[in-house]
């Protein structure tokens, strides 16, 4: 059986072309600064983001952690959203490993933080009671807010606010290339309002491993030390960087296909009785599709997201039930999902809802 794996865009396998690039990669010891392919990837990514320098890291989680460790010290505070990946899914690493205090604000459904909430969260540095605020964190596209793309205007407003208060902005841009495509701008336009930006090569871009953290030269020099401290100094890492370079070359423009497939999937899901999909409504959506399952509405109280996911799996379609009590399912389009796979997944959903 050929699986249609819609759980995440992290499940892609390297293409033949990417495997050839990996096999041919020139390598050296990157901790000595001698891996030419890693250096090329760092330069290329930095230039795409309009930043001075880049740092290859093992994962998005490591990129965000290294960025926060570089911007903030023990007892310092960062401002971030309650639905942000960093707050929800990164093991509390900034606090656990860096002693950094998270100041969590509610994310609105469009992935933003209310600017007056952010302003009010910034501590008075002259008061001995308070931790010092150092960083405002944004996420674009916003994963738990449905893969929505923040607007350039909003990011600029956060950047301006941060500047007024002498704070840094860190942008979790795991899917920044998706956001840029949705908003019709270059990724560098979003990076402009941020001091540091992390992008993932291993999501929609289809590389097997790796992320790149970008910022100015001094920031990246210090981040390189922090990466070493968390065990992220890798050696002949050009093997991985070659895949990343290949992805930046070949897999950026095609993200539009993923977005079109996700829109098709969302519209198809929303038509089905018992399912409701937010990404079928107007919005700056990308490649993530979330939908809720209401078995009661179709006279099948036993049918919840978990049961539905199990029935899909029996038909070769993998999806991710999630949330407290798992009332929702996530489906993600990517490099290894074609338009006909989307149609097949919709057929599987129809028959799963019928109870087969
Ligand atoms: C996946 C993801 C990360 C972390 O990336 P890993 O490579 O899985 O550690 C960070 N932020 C967002 C928004 C993500 O979706």
Note down, in words, how this protein is organized.
By secondary structure, the chain is of the alpha/beta class. The protein folds into 2 domains: 16-250, Aspartate Aminotransferase, domain 2, CATH 3.40.640; 254-354, Aspartate Aminotransferase, domain 1 (Alpha-Beta Complex). 41% of the residues lie in helices and 17% in strands. The strands form 3 sheets. A 7-stranded mixed sheet has the order 2-8-7-6-5-3-4, with helices on both faces. A 4-stranded antiparallel sheet has the order 9-10-13-12. The protein has a two-stranded parallel ribbon with strand order 1-11.
Write the layout of secondary structure elements.
Layout: E1 4-5, H1 16-23, H2 36-48, E2 53-57, H3 60-71, E3 77-81, H4 85-89, H5 93-98, E4 101-105, H6 115-121, E5 133-139, H7 152-164, E6 168-173, H8 176-183, H9 187-191, E7 196-200, E8 211-215, H10 217-229, H11 238-250, H12 255-270, E9 275-277, E10 288-293, H13 305-314, E11 317-318, E12 320-322, E13 328-332, H14 339-354
Parallel strand pairs: 1-11, 3-4, 3-5, 5-6, 6-7
Antiparallel strand pairs: 2-8, 7-8, 9-10, 10-13, 12-13
Helix pairs in contact: 1-11, 2-11, 3-10, 12-14
The protein binds pyridoxal-5'-phosphate (PLP).
Pyridoxal-5'-phosphate is lined by residues 59-61, 64, 85, 139, 143, 172, 174, 200, 202, 211.
